[in-house]
C-alpha cells in the first residue's frame, strides 16, 4: 500500500498539529498548512509555526511539508491544490477564532463586527478549503475528509452564539457533504476532541504538557483533559480503517473512537470526556472528589 498523502488545514497548533504528527507517525506525507510561519505571524499572535509542525511530522516518521495557506483566500487554496497529485486524507481544522470570541457577553451586547468575523473565519474557511480541495478526492474516487469541530451534537451549552454557529455549522457541513460524496467514494465525517490541552490552554494555566496535572487544582474538570495527539490518533485510526465508510456523515468524538479502536493518549491513559461530561459535569457532582481514574 502506498504511503498516505494528507493535507491538514490549520495544522499550526492545537488539534491540527496533533493530527498532523499522528498521521506522520503512520508514515504519511503531510502538507502542514496554516498562516503562521517562522517569517510571518497571523492575527492569532501565537509562537507556533507550520515549519515547527512539519518538523514534528518528520520526526514522527512521516514527511512534513509546510505550506503557508490562508483558507479564507481562494488563490491560496488553489495554489495548494496545484501541488497535489493525490490526496488520501483531508483534515479541515481551520479555526483561529478563540481570541475573538466574547463568551461572557450576551450576543446583543457583543461587538457585531467581531462576531460576524468569527463566523466568517470559522465557516467560510471550511467551505473554501472544501471547494478548493474536494476536486482532487472526487477525481480519484476515494479519500477521507475529517471536519474538526467542538462537540458531537447540537445541544447549546451557553457558549457565544457565533462560536456555537461555527461549530454546529461544521457538523452540518460534514453531514451534507457525506450525502453528496459517499456515492463518489469519498468518506466525510465530523470529529471533536474532548477537553483539549492545547498550547494556549496549557500556557493559560501556567503548566506544560509534562506538568499539566498541576492545573487540576484550578479546574477539577481538567483531570479529564486530553492532549492534541489523542484526537490525532483517532484520525490515524480512521485513515487506516478499510471500513471507514461506515462512519460517513457521523459526528464522532475522540472518546467514541477510543472505545472503537483502543488507542491511548501520550500518558498511556484513555480519557473519556463523554462519560465524564454526562456523569460528572452535567449532574453537578463535585469534580474535585470524583474518581478520575474511572474515566481515564
The named CATH superfamily = NAD(P)-binding Rossmann-like Domain
Report the major sheet. Answer: 7 strands, parallel
CATH architecture title: 3-Layer(aba) Sandwich
Count of separate DSSP helical elements: 9
> Any idea what the radius of gyration is?
18 Å
- Helical percentage: 25-40%
Low-confidence stretches: none
InterPro entries: NAD(P)-bd_dom_sf (IPR036291), SDR_fam (IPR002347)
Protein name: NAD(P)-dependent dehydrogenase (Short-subunit alcohol dehydrogenase family)
Organism: Actinocrispum wychmicini
Pfam families: adh_short
Describe the structure.
The chain has 296 residues and is α/β, with parallel strands linked by helices. It has a single domain (5-215, 227-271), classed as 3-Layer(aba) Sandwich (Rossmann fold), CATH 3.40.50. It contains nine helices and seven strands. Helix 7 (228-240) packs across helix 8 (254-261). The protein is globular, with a radius of gyration of 18 Å. InterPro entries: NAD(P)-bd_dom_sf, SDR_fam. It comes from Actinocrispum wychmicini.
Which descriptors apply to this entry?
NAD(P)-dependent dehydrogenase (Short-subunit alcohol dehydrogenase family); 7-stranded parallel beta sheet; 12% strand; SDR_fam; Rossmann fold; alpha/beta; 296 residues
Q: How do the strands and helices of this protein lay out in sequence?
A:
Blueprint lengths: L4 E5 L4 H12 L3 E6 L15 H11 L2 E6 L5 H9 L6 E4 L19 H29 L2 E6 L12 H21 L4 E7 L6 H6 L23 H13 L10 E3 H8 L11 H9 L15
Parallel strand pairs: 1-2, 1-4, 2-3, 4-5, 5-6, 6-7
Helix pairs in contact: 1-2, 1-7, 3-4, 4-5, 7-8
Amino acid at each position: 500500500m502506498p504511503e498516505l498523502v494528507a493535507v491538514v488545514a490549520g495544522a499550526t497548533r492545537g488539534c491540527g498539529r496533533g493530527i498532523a504528527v499522528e498521521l506522520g507517525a503512520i508514515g504519511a506525507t503531510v502538507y502542514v498548512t496554516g498562516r503562521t510561519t517562522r517569517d510571518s505571524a497571523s492575527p492569532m499572535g501565537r509562537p507556533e509555526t507550520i515549519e515547527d509542525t512539519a518538523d514534528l511530522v518528520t520526526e514522527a516518521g512521516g514527511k512534513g511539508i509546510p505550506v503557508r495557506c490562508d483558507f479564507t483566500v481562494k488563490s491560496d487554496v488553489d495554489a495548494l491544490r496545484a501541488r497535489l497529485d493525490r490526496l488520501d486524507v483531508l483534515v479541515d481544522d481551520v479555526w483561529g477564532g478563540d481570541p475573538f470570541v466574547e463568551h461572557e457577553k450576551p450576543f446583543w451586547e457583543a461587538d457585531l463586527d467581531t462576531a460576524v468575523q468569527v463566523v466568517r473565519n470559522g465557516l467560510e474557511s471550511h467551505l473554501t478549503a472544501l471547494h478548493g480541495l474536494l476536486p482532487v478526492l472526487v477525481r480519484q474516487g476515494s479519500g477521507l475528509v475529517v471536519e474538526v469541530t467542538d462537540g458531537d451534537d447540537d445541544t447549546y451549552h451557553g457558549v457565544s452564539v457565533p462560536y456555537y454557529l461555527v461549530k454546529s455549522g461544521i457538523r452540518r457541513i460534514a453531514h451534507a457533504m457525506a450525502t453528496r460524496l459517499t456515492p463518489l467514494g469519498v468518506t466525510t465525517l465530523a470529529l471533536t476532541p474532548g477537553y483539549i490541552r492545547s498550547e494556549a490552554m496549557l500556557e493559560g494555566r501556567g503548566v506544560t504538557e509534562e506538568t499539566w496535572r498541576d492545573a487540576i487544582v484550578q479546574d477539577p474538570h481538567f483531570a479529564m483533559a486530553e492532549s492534541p495527539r489523542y484526537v490525532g490518533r483517532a484520525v490515524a485510526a480512521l485513515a487506516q480503517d478499510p471500513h471507514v465508510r461506515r462512519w460517513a456523515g457521523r459526528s464522532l468524538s475522540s472518546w467514541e473512537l477510543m472505545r472503537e479502536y483502543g488507542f491511548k493518549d501520550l500518558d498511556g491513559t484513555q480519557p473519556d470526556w463523554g462519560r465524564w461530561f454526562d456523569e460528572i459535569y452535567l449532574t453537578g457532582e463535585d469534580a474535585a472528589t470524583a474518581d478520575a481514574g474511572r474515566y481515564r
